[in-house]
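Lab notebook, design round three. We kept the backbone fixed and only want residue identities now. Task for the bench partner: fill in a sequence for the structure below.
Input structure tokens:
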């Protein structure tokens, strides 16, 4: 699926996405999930081609033909696999959508959400070719009503760039996302970001590092938000105990699906740590799952759930995800994740498919 505009982070630039969808079928009803990993193993160890092979060889066979009383059981059958939570989560989320559709209830209700009927939306803006281009994009999103601006940073695109953003937009809710681009050797540079009144700095250090984040958080006035290194509720417990962060981003794929996402949410809520829903340039399928997740009580900060048209020239769901002028997404009462797939467009962008049937 081609992007409307390239999206750049500290580890590269993306012009389009190649993604894997999972359809789980039972009783003539389909549930859909999305594997949210990227095309290369730079965010974490997963990548699209690897996910395809893992699904075929391990994830699908582990569940095929089994009787599940609830979708929450799905993850147990892949729990012995090390890592690859995004791939396993693609199957798990399809099962949750399937259960919700079989029961005729909204996915948000099935997962125990519903704390809010409208999701406050933020937007993520990648590294641009120039500061002026960045300022223009921020202005467009502020005008569209988004309640929080996240800008990607990396060494050389950080302090002075944020200074220019703050000069142009002195009062907008603003955060910076480093995607693991720094080390403790950069601590003095990161401390300079305290002057800008940021909501948070997201994952400044290594993707698997909690202890160094504790040292960094102790040195900063700005809240550290952890992303990549929180893959389980236990990781969240460790980070909170070590005071490695004050905020946690929950990405549905990164933690392996709804069951673990709810556990991470509950740990954070019990410890007074606010959470928000992160994004991975999902299609409408993954985007709709994120909307359901963000209705849980402790998702008190605007997440990366935004309108389809911000990223896609055309989405694979019908209707597309829309954002109100107030910067929110309204949740619906339809079954499952609440949107239909666009079968004609999906067929036009399909690269390949394989079907597996229980014997």
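Proposed sequence:
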């Amino acid at each position: 699926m081609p992007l409307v505009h390239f999206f750049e982070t500290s580890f590269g630039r993306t012009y389009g996405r190649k993604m894997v969808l999972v359809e789980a079928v039972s009783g003539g009803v389909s549930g859909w999930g999305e594997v949210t990993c990227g095309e290369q193993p730079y965010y974490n160890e997963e990548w699209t081609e690897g996910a395809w092979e893992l699904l075929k060889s391990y994830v699908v066979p582990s569940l095929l033909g089994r009787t599940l009383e609830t979708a929450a059981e799905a993850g147990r059958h892949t729990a012995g696999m090390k890592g690859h939570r995004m791939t396993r989560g693609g199957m798990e989320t399809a099962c949750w959508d399937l259960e919700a559709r079989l029961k005729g209830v909204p996915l948000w209700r099935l997962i125990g959400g519903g704390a809010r009927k409208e999701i406050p939306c933020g937007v993520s803006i990648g590294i641009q070719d120039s500061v002026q281009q960045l300022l223009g994009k921020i202005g467009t999103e502020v005008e569209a009503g988004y309640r929080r601006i996240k800008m990607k940073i990396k060494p050389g695109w950080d302090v002075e760039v944020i200074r220019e953003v703050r000069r142009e937009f002195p009062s907008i809710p603003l955060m910076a996302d480093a995607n693991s681009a720094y080390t403790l050797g950069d601590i003095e540079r990161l401390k300079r970001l305290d002057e800008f009144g940021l909501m948070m700095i997201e994952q400044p250090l290594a993707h698997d590092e909690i202890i160094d984040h504790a040292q960094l958080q102790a040195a900063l006035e700005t809240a550290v938000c952890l992303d990549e290194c929180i893959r389980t509720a236990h990781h969240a417990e460790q980070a909170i105990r070590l005071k490695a962060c004050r905020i946690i981003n929950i990405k549905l794929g990164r933690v392996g699906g709804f069951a673990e996402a709810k556990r991470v949410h509950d740990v954070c809520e019990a410890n007074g740590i606010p959470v928000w829903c992160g994004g991975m340039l999902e299609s409408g399928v993954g985007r709709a799952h994120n909307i359901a997740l963000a209705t849980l009580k402790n998702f008190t900060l605007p997440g990366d759930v935004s309108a389809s048209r911000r990223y896609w020239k055309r989405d694979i769901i019908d209707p597309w995800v829309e954002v109100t002028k107030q910067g929110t997404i309204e949740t619906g009462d339809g079954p499952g994740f609440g949107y239909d797939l666009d079968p004609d467009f999906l067929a036009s962008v399909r690269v390949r498919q394989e079907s597996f049937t229980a014997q």
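Keep this in mind before ordering anything: The domain at 2-104 is CATH 3.30.390.10 (Enolase-like; domain 1).
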